[in-house]
Write a structure and sequence with these properties.
The complex is a heterodimer of chains A (570) and B (396). With 570 residues, chain A is mainly α. Chain A has 25 helices and 2 strands. In chain B, the strands form 5 sheets. In chain B, strands 7-8-9-3-10-11 form a 6-stranded mixed beta sheet, sandwiched between helices. Chain B has a 5-stranded antiparallel beta sheet with strand order 2-1-4-5-6, covered by helices on one side. The chains are: A mainly alpha (570), B alpha+beta (396). Chain A: This is Iron(III) transport system permease protein.
Amino acid sequence: MTVPATEARGACRAADGRLARARRVRLTGTGRPAWSALVVLIAAIVCIPVVAVLVEALASVGDSAWPRGLGEMVVTTVALLAAVALGTTVLGVGLAWLVTAYDFPGRRWLSWLLVLPLAMPAYVLGFLVLSTFGPAGGPARAARATVGTSGFVEWLSGPLGAPVVLSLTLYPYVYLLSRAAFRGQGQVTWDAARMLGASPWRAFRQVLLPLARPAIAGGLAVVMMETLTDFATVQYFTVRTVSVGVYLTWKGSFDFASAAQLSVLVLAFAVLVLTGERILRGGARYDARGGHRPPAAPTVLTGAARWWAAAAAWSVLLLAFVLPVARLVWWAVTATAADSSSLSTGRFAMNLANSGVMAALAALACVGLALVVTHGVRVTGGRLARAAAQLTTFGYAVPGAVIGIGVLVAFAALDGWLEALGVAGGTGLVVTGSVLGILASYVVRFLAPAYQAVDASFATISPSVTNSAFSLGSSPWRVLRRVHLPLSRSGIAVALVLVAVDAVKELPLVLLLRPFGFTTLSVSVYELANENFWEQAALPALLIVALAIVPVYFLVRQVRLAEPHRQELS
Amino acid sequence: MTSEATVGRDATPDDARETHVGARTAYETNDTGAQRDPALALRTVSKSYGDTPAVCELDLAVEAGEIVALIGPSGCGKSTLLRLVAGLERPDAGEVRVGDATVAGRGAWVPPEKRRVGLVFQEHALFPHLTVGDNIRFGLAGVARAEQDARVRKVLELVHLPHTVDRYPHELSGGEQQRIALARSLAPRPEVVLLDEPFSSLDESLRARVRTDTVDALRATGTTAILVTHDQTEALTVGDRIGVMRAGVVEQLGTPAEVFERPVSRFVASFMGDADFLPVVADEHGLMSELGRVMVRTDVDAREAEVVVRPHEVALTLTLPADGGDGVARARAVVERVEYHGAFVLHTVRLPSGRTVRSWQPHSVRYPVGTEVVASIQPGLVPSLLVGDHTLPTPD
């Protein structure tokens, strides 16, 4: 039987209008509306705090006066952001350039060790700087004894200490991104510029720096978001940013309207930072096409330059990580030796348990939701689910103060509804604070890293594996349980660790939302440091730093795997 | 028929089919109906991605137990068609029927896991964390354990790999993985199995062997199958019928011989095998080409017509009466290129008009380049005639 050719092309074109209408009705791939709805719901939950803050602030416009000293807070915030941006750019770009272009003793080790300060929370380095360079610290006493004045040492324990501490802990973001830019296309362009007769300095300034601009802008954006989120460290140094304002307003008056209005200001700063990044990056998206070729050999430094370079790089690592850790170890040992019972009994064990439970719950919640989102995107294949999944990562860019107040406002609204339904007192969670609130804020903030890790694992599962499972009669739940879950185990493990460590490290959200008397490791560090019990703060701080090294290790491994290596000539 | 194939055939008596409890509840088959439905039917199915139509008002019916090979250039819509049947895409319009149930269209939608449609992918897509046995058992949820074991054994025997039951996919060769993927898709006794270029990831040397095994297994179980391929030889050797697709429509659907010998269009003629096109002139008896008389018809406008000649239809002779036996004198052609293909030798000859045609000669015949030969159509063969882009139905 031979079927003659169909003259269907014209008919098909005529049907186009009909087809277009059919498409508009159905936005979700092959459909599985339940899964699309689930992903959208999770995305909505992540957005609740921001929406709640905006609604609350809008609803109370004009009702409450702006807190006193608002202008000063804004100026302080701008100044702090600018100072930290400057500090991290100098350290990050400078060090990246040094380890990429030049060879000096320890270069190969340093290029990775310089990422370590990421594991040092600013609130830990902060109290170390405060204790060391304060009026009672060793350097100040020595200065007074020798030259009679200690002002030139003590400025570090004043407001200027804040940008120094933040720069030393945050520069690795800029370092990593600009190093990647220099290694990638940068290397090829650098060679070309040098071949055309440009001096190293001119090649750096006129060719490499503009090329690395998008990468530097990206790193700076992360740095400034972290700076904006912090309202604990800066208080050591009596710096009052807008985020500090939110915290103090809430803790001082428990006034939603004022706190929400200030939070909107913090949010505005965040939007400004992200807009700034867009502008700095320009339309330029320099493709790292050269990134697939190994970099050329760095210039081998000789003579004094060799030692200056080594000294500069090593001293940053010493100041930002090695010396602080050494100090923590020393204090932890002496404090434990003085009172060894404090380890097993007392508050340390309690705080450790609290941190552990919170981290475990946060990790399970975030990774569970991340799995649902990733799996949902895979099984629906729809644009709607994909867009919603993208939205779930947005919490990572929302400053902690905004999330915290947003969660509180949302809980208050929930209480209102519950009371309206006849439940006296509602959940009773708002004013007393609650562990549930902390967990909710953790989910909003840490869903992004969990999603990214799980999603990376899913990317290695071929769509035909998923489709095979369906064609063999499996429901979406069974595909998740029997195929996707076992095949993304490594990503799930990484996500659990990342979220757990982030949760242990997190300070501002816990400070803002914790119930009375509820203390975690990070809160105990902060409280003890504020009361100048530095020796006692050392052990929990050390534990946090040790845990925080794990995700830094993951990060370094990931970067190393991604970049090509020069064949070592034997 | 081999003994293994006989074993396989035993695997699908109708009573065994009835014991399947999996997704059968989604729609009950009605075997007592007066007229049996085709195993798979697409009716005016359309699917576009954005503004690009991938499948246009396509009709296709596959009979039970039939193997249809779909072939076409990339982007012709053949993979989209498979995805529509499998339930991985929803049609914008039209209807997809599996057995006697509508699975898409007319307001119905049956998700892939309830369609009883098996899938075999180019990259095999075995579950890497499960053994071969567990891979096959995956599709047998709801079947009693003893029955599961029996089915695993049977399908593994069917593909000649019973010893691999406890191995993991990464311990198997590419060809073995492909056969396991087939076994896995057959185990739940699907209504239709879809194979998406299943052999193209295999080495050339392995491909023919795995292909034969696959077809044997499909035939032994009486499975209805659609095989998508871009390899003409594969389509011609595997398919009971071949569907040649272009721009979202099936341009020709027919047996391999029909598609090869009676292509309906210029596209099918040139896509399915080599073909040269020569102009014709009309005389009082019909149409003449440079290779001789091609058709005894006078109702065709010779200015728009061309004859399709395949290399096996062109005879080359050294000495022939200058008139080719049809009373028309012909000038000599010159051998321009000779390619040795093993069993056959491909000669390219330049005709007096300057056009070239190709001719297969047995491997013992090898005219040196520059030899003057007479090219004519093999006696007894009737080449197709194109008018515009479509061929005339030939009287035979």
